[in-house]
């Protein structure tokens, strides 16, 4: 039996869910796929990852796979597409990181700008602190639970023995008051 006939048999058995055939196909074709992938991309780790991902996809889609007359050509094509997709994705990520780095270096603030920002932040904190003092104790408690402890309205209602609607309305009124005071 030839190499390709052997692979065709493994392919058909893989389509019916045979794990042994899946592993046999993997073992028969791995070295060929690795050599082929390295011709496309010199990154051996990426090629190995793509081969593994390709076989994981084959296993997960085994029931929808179609009969193939040349299994090796099918696997080479699938690997090539997968590698190209990964290389494209990596180049987009690399470009985005470079763009963000360039923007960050362009936006570096001077020492004076940093001091001004810190002062503005401090002023905003003081204004918020004063505005929070204008709230009722219940509103303050619910704002703390919602925004500082990150609880959901359902959790707030359970913790404060209120209905969820009451908790929501109390937080809504508190936010409305804070907006008015901070303008």
From TrEMBL:
Signal peptide segment: none
RNA polymerase sigma factor 70 region 4 type domain: residues covered: 126-178
Cited Pfam families: Sigma70_r4_2
Name by which UniProt lists this protein: RNA polymerase sigma factor (Sigma-70 family)
PANTHER family from the UniProt entry: RNA POLYMERASE ECF-TYPE SIGMA FACTO, RNA POLYMERASE SIGMA-70 FACTOR ECF SUBFAMILY
Record InterPro entries: RNA_pol_sigma-70-like (IPR039425), RNA_pol_sigma-70_dom (IPR014284), RNA_pol_sigma70_r4_t2 (IPR013249), RNA_pol_sigma_r2 (IPR013325), RNA_pol_sigma_r3/r4-like (IPR013324), WH-like_DNA-bd_sf (IPR036388)
GO molecular function ontology, one term from the record: sigma factor activity
Family assignment from sequence similarity: Belongs to the sigma-70 factor family. ECF subfamily.
Domain of life of the source: Bacteria
Record's keyword annotation contains Transcription: yes
Cited Gene3D superfamilies: 1.10.1740.10, Winged helix-like DNA-binding domain superfamily/Winged helix DNA-binding domain
Keywords: Sigma factor, Transcription, Transcription regulation
Organism: Chitinophaga niastensis
UniProt-listed GO biological process terms: DNA-templated transcription initiation
CDD domains the UniProt entry points to: Sigma70_r4
């Amino acid at each position: 039996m030839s190499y390709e006939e052997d692979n065709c048999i493994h392919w058909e058995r893989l389509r019916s869910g045979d794990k042994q055939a899946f592993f046999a196909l993997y073992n028969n074709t791995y070295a060929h796929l690795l050599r082929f992938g390295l011709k496309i991309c010199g990154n051996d780790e990426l090629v190995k990852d793509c081969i593994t991902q390709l076989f994981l996809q084959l296993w997960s889609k085994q029931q929808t796979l179609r009969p193939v007359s040349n299994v090796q050509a099918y696997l080479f094509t699938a690997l090539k597409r997968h590698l190209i997709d990964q290389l494209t994705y990596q180049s987009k990520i690399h470009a985005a990181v470079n763009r963000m780095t360039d923007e960050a270096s362009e936006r570096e603030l001077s020492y004076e700008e940093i001091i001004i920002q810190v002062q503005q932040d401090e002023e905003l904190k003081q204004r918020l602190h004063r505005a929070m003092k204008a709230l009722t104790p219940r509103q303050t408690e619910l704002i703390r639970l919602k925004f500082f402890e990150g609880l959901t309205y359902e959790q707030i209602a359970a913790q404060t023995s209120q209905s969820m609607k009451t908790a929501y309305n109390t937080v809504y009124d508190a936010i409305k008051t804070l907006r008015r005071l901070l303008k």
